[in-house]
Amino acid sequence: MVSFSIWQLLLLSASVAQAAEITSDTYFYGQSPPVYPSPPITGTPSWAAAFEKAVALVSQMTLEEKANITVGYSPLTGCSGETGTVPRLNWTGLCISDAGNGLRSTDFVNGWPSGIHVGASWDRNMAYQRALHMGGEFKTKGVHVALGPVVGPLGRVAQGGRNWEGFSNDPYLCGALASETVQGIQDAGVIATTKHYIGYEQETNRNPSGGVEAYSANIDDKTLHELYLWPFANAVHSGSGAIMCSYNRVNNSYSCQNSKLLNGILKTELGFEGFVVSDWGAQHTGYDSAAAGLDVAMPSSSYWGLDGNNLTEAVKNGSLPESRVTDMATRLVASWYQMGQDVDFPARGVGMPSKFYTPHPPVYARDPSSKQFLIEGALEGHVLVKNVNNALPLNNPKLISVYGYDAPSPPEMNVGGPNDFIGGTWVYGYESTLDYIVFISDTSPPQIAANGTIISGGGSGANAPAYISAPFDAIKEQAYQDDTSLFWDFLNVDPTVDTSTDACLVFINAFATEGDDRTGLHDDYSDALILNVASKCNNTIVTIHNAGIRLVDQWIEHPNITAVVFAHLPGQDSGRALVQLLYGQQSFSGKLPYTVAKNESAYTNGGEPSLPEGEYTLFPQSNFTEGVYIDYKYFDQKNITPRYEFGFGLTYTTFSYSNLSINKLETVSTAPTAPPSPIIPGGVASLWDVIAQVTAVVTNTGNVTCAEVAQLYVNIPGGPVKQLRGFSKVGIPVGEPVTVEFDLMRRDLSTWDVASQQWLLQGGGYEIWVGSSSRDLPLKGTLII
Ligand SMILES: *[C@@H]1O[C@H](CO)[C@@H](O)[C@H](O)[C@H]1NC(C)=O
Ligand SMILES: *[C@@H]1O[C@H](CO)[C@@H](O)[C@H](O)[C@H]1NC(C)=O
Ligand SMILES: *[C@@H]1O[C@H](CO)[C@@H](O)[C@H](O)[C@H]1NC(C)=O
Ligand SMILES: *[C@@H]1O[C@H](CO)[C@@H](O)[C@H](O)[C@H]1NC(C)=O
Ligand SMILES: *[C@@H]1O[C@H](CO)[C@@H](O)[C@H](O)[C@H]1NC(C)=O
Ligand SMILES: *[C@@H]1O[C@H](CO)[C@@H](O)[C@H](O)[C@H]1NC(C)=O
Ligand SMILES: *[C@@H]1O[C@H](CO)[C@@H](O)[C@H](O)[C@H]1NC(C)=O
Ligand SMILES: *[C@@H]1O[C@H](CO)[C@@H](O)[C@H](O)[C@H]1NC(C)=O
Ligand SMILES: *[C@@H]1O[C@H](CO)[C@@H](O)[C@H](O)[C@H]1NC(C)=O
Ligand SMILES: *[C@@H]1O[C@H](CO)[C@@H](O)[C@H](O)[C@H]1NC(C)=O
Ligand SMILES: *[C@@H]1O[C@H](CO)[C@@H](O)[C@H](O)[C@H]1NC(C)=O
Ligand SMILES: *[C@@H]1O[C@H](CO)[C@@H](O)[C@H](O)[C@H]1NC(C)=O
Prior knowledge:
By secondary structure, this protein is α/β, with parallel strands linked by helices. The chain folds into 3 domains: 278 residues, TIM Barrel, CATH 3.20.20; 224 residues, 3-Layer(aba) Sandwich (Rossmann fold), CATH 3.40.50; 130 residues, Immunoglobulins (Immunoglobulin-like). It has 17 helices and 30 strands.
């Protein structure tokens, strides 16, 4: 079915040769099959107009010009990357910039809530509005391509350094919010880059270093489809113009040259019409990577040649068909047309000099309409997990005591806002891992950022905020209005407590950054601080700014700890949002987008990344043998009781659930094999058909209007005990029951059949549950397929 050509054989022998330096070729556990040739963009109906225009433009380009636009050039602006241009045709190329939580490295932009915060909001509309307004900032600065959203890492490794950049370790929740984010960014006229494709679940050994190869994520076909690929399918279905391939290997073949992943799964099975861009430096071969499906190499390419000359030569000497280079260029240009960037797009990187302190005309990217979504986004991602003795909301306190390194603005922060690369060190302004964070623990990397509050994690996904509202800033403002007295101590691990205090607010964090995995899921310093305060204060309220899962079992049952908030990474309106929640001006409405265990051992591999071991010391292998059983699916499978289950979160009211109704749509075929259906972006079209609908009634049984996240879980016969397959966040007034609706698509109820290479419905009874978390599911029924 697929004919081998000389370049495929070279590709195979190249990887074997590389391996032979390490050990024999029987060494490999995972193998990735060759899939060639690379499928060209088809001009599917949703891309037809852009495709036609792209064909018309690219047909005027010479081979040299086509090759030239597939490689990055050292940016003349603050863009993270710039493609080559075609001066002869006045085609000015694309600016590509970090990242998914806001535009980095420049001024006059906002620091948005991070991915994990959006995940905790469980709010599709909020995800869309955040992306739309954030995307608008990229466009105003002449950035064509935003390097986000993140759906990989998904969160297999609890200690993963970049889990916070993504939404959730549940593929359905992650996929739904990725879909909204892609639509929002692209509705603003900017190409979204869904990343990192795929199996990039740890920072440890993500790149070759010191003679040790990048690790290989060995993932079986069923797990890949049902877990890691799932949110990418959502993103492609929503029209994501770009996909970034990741640093790691998958089945021992680098993601950016893995033909099975790029040619096979992404461009054939998912019908992806946009372009694949390498992560910065993730390319490891020349024309082989082009043949395998990589379209654009960033930030430059020694492999394809600094102006693409090696690609040109490879075409001329018969190693690579010119049609592949044409397709690479066409995919890039089609994405540009698809977002309307040929009309009135600002100049590349306008107002973004590569050094922000060099003179430049100001370009104000902060739209006043963003304000509402910055604060609402910040509000919605806070999750209240404990609240006893009416600790919250605070009610006209006379004295509040504030503790912990995470309460104030970073005190020694000399740089805020824009960020830059100075003296060989990244200075990300406020959010750096390096400039203001002095580490308390001896472990490297540290678990906490000990010199001030965090509003995002570190690395390329970090924020460039316009300002920071730290918790203590907002508390002071509220104290002024309420005539409350304050006591504070941010330095001592065993601070004093005024016995007259109404409440003790303790602020800690759990930091994470690109480039390193975390070294634990709780730290002794912060735990000691909390316990010391609680021993002296019977109304101790803990807030954790957590860039990932943070365990609480060292102190959660302490009787003096009356309230606990997972505050995640709220962006620049952090403190302002928190105070509105603590004082009951707004209700908490977030839910955990992950499971909080009682102990590290409850997670796959104890929550730790895979390390090089034994005979694999030089070629680390990460075997994803747990399959789809991560997070709550794993806890269900192993019968482990979590501390706080996936989907859990308190509000200032209570809800009751009733009137479950499950309806199969008789107008849509539920034959196990879907009727013949075209491939659209996202896969077989019929997978996206709604085949059943579920409704339930939610009643507010308390005293205040609050939003509830109603959740639907399904047992697909033969699969995990339950899987999230629907959620709906709605404001529910007291005394007015609200009907929530869930649409179930064919894909939601199907499993991947490895033998026939398709999604199949399982005939029989599907148990369906609806409720307020993955373990509080009062409504139960059966759907017969
Ligand atoms: C991964 O699988 C290979 C092949 O089965 C095995 O030799 C290796 O020990 C496994 N690695 C881990 C960490 O389990
Ligand atoms: C990886 O290897 C597994 C096991 O052989 C196979 O099921 C899967 O399809 C392979 N995937 C890729 C992308 O090579
Ligand atoms: C390739 O792109 C570079 C950078 O934009 C440009 O300077 C050069 O002229 C382009 N080469 C051709 C052949 O168009
Ligand atoms: C490029 O721009 C110049 C100056 O605006 C114009 O004279 C020329 O016709 C344009 N060339 C093409 C191919 O559009
Ligand atoms: C690729 O091009 C660069 C110059 O851009 C050259 O130094 C290098 O040797 C070329 N590599 C191959 C494999 O031709
Ligand atoms: C063709 O050109 C490429 C790129 O320079 C080079 O790597 C390859 O060895 C050449 N192949 C032949 C058969 O000359
Ligand atoms: C940062 O925090 C640590 C730990 O509390 C402290 O020792 C150090 O003095 C602080 N650094 C600055 C610059 O404030
Ligand atoms: C709780 O706080 C009170 C002070 O309000 C203190 O006397 C008591 O010992 C604390 N309880 C515990 C278990 O530490
Ligand atoms: C907490 O301690 C204060 C005195 O410090 C006391 O008035 C109050 O009743 C105590 N609250 C609880 C819930 O024990
Ligand atoms: C998990 O268990 C280990 C071993 O008993 C213990 O050292 C560790 O502190 C526990 N973790 C938490 C968060 O309690
Ligand atoms: C829920 O069901 C009950 C009993 O069937 C019915 O009386 C009630 O009207 C329903 N409530 C809503 C909001 O549909
Ligand atoms: C609602 O308010 C009433 C009267 O203030 C109070 O008795 C009741 O406990 C409250 N209910 C809830 C669920 O908070």
